[in-house]
User: Which sequence fits this backbone?
């Protein structure tokens, strides 16, 4: 199928007022599929992600990913000059994404009532740690707290070890994807009603969904899922195993047929006849025995040989990659999952591609994150401001 010239969100304007990390990542995803995204940053306090993690030549690399496909405007929203410009922008905008503590925009005269008054079709996505109401609403909220509160940390780690937090923004990233879905849902509803609405996204909630049926288990059975390391209480064998050349692989047997194939492959077909082998949950009760059978076989083979044998047996296995392996993996290469982007500041950059492929109107990375305030004059000129007016705003430190 031939791709159309316009990306699916071409003509949709998004203003990104958010920082660290769920809100901005949502805006990035919308920009990847054609939305015009204007990133608003404080004139003297750039987005903190510009300074997160490693830098090259003084340029933050995380920002190059998070800021891609966004134009950059500096604006102090806390004063009347910044307020007026944002309201002028909002009048011709489809989506605003913000993650200030509840009440902050209202204090600046930029709450839902004011925004809705200038543009009844506007969708306002509010992304906070705990949502817009409730006893925790005014607490500072980060993804780490969601990973702790949701039950994720409680089930992650070895049985005799402490609860374990992920070393990356897991809850933020899940919330970003959920917010993008929520925004598109609100925009679709607007086509029917003609009215925009508020999206209230609490980062503590989407991660609950991806954790599965824990609330149901507890509600109906009083069951509390424990920490099981790399094992599962739902099937076995399911673990990581070390190969003869010191590499690691992961094996999963979520399907009964796969579990049986693995046992044939590792020379322990007699275990299939055990009554407990007939279901994943009862196999999980015999994880020690199954891990020993699979682990001993894998320990006698190199990683490549083990993967090849599993592939021939139509059993499920994958190498444990670090980022060096990811960059060279032939499947990721085939999918162009890591793609190259030309950047005026740093030259060619390799980063994650857009989140999914569309056959007719695909997304694209048009540029990586741009310098602080790089598009301020162009954006304000587009609003009708004169050079003298822009200079006056700079003198007042609004920009």
Assistant:
């Amino acid at each position: 199928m031939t791709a159309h010239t316009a990306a699916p969100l071409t003509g949709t304007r998004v203003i990104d007022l958010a920082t660290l990390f769920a809100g901005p990542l949502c805006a990035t995803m919308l920009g990847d599929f054609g939305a015009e995204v204007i990133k608003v940053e404080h004139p003297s306090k750039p987005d903190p992600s510009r300074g997160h993690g490693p830098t090259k030549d003084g340029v933050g690399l995380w920002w190059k990913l998070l800021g891609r496909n966004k134009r950059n405007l500096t604006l102090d929203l806390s004063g009347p000059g910044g307020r007026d410009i944002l309201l002028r922008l909002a009048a011709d905008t489809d989506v605003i994404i913000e993650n200030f503590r509840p009440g902050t925009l209202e204090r600046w005269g930029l709450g839902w009532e004011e925004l809705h008054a200038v543009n009844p079709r506007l969708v306002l996505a509010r992304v906070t740690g705990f949502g817009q109401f409730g006893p925790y609403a005014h607490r500072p909220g980060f993804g780490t707290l969601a990973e702790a509160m949701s039950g994720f940390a409680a089930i992650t780690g070895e049985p005799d070890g402490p609860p374990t937090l992920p070393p990356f923004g897991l809850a933020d990233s899940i919330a970003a994807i959920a917010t993008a879905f929520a925004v598109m849902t609100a925009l679709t509803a607007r086509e029917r009603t003609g009215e925009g609405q508020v999206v209230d996204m609490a980062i503590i909630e989407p991660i609950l969904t991806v954790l599965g049926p824990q609330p149901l288990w507890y509600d109906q059975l009083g069951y509390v899922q424990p920490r099981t390391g790399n094992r599962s209480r739902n099937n076995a064998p399911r673990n990581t195993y070390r190969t003869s050349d010191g590499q690691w692989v992961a094996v999963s047997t979520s399907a009964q047929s796969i579990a049986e194939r693995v046992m044939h492959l590792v020379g322990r077909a007699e275990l299939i006849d055990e009554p407990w082998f007939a279901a994943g949950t009862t196999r999980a009760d015999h994880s020690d025995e199954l891990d020993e059978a699979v682990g001993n076989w894998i320990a006698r083979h190199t990683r490549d040989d083990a993967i090849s044998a599993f592939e021939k047996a139509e059993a499920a296995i994958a190498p444990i990659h670090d980022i060096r392996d990811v960059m060279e993996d032939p499947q990721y290469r085939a999918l162009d999952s890591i793609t190259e982007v030309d950047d005026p500041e740093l030259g060619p950059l390799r980063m994650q591609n857009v989140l999914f492929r569309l056959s007719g109107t695909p997304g694209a990375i048009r540029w990586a994150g741009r310098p602080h305030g790089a598009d301020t004059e162009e954006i304000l000129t587009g609003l009708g401001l004169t050079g003298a007016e822009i200079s006056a705003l700079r003198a007042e430190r609004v920009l």
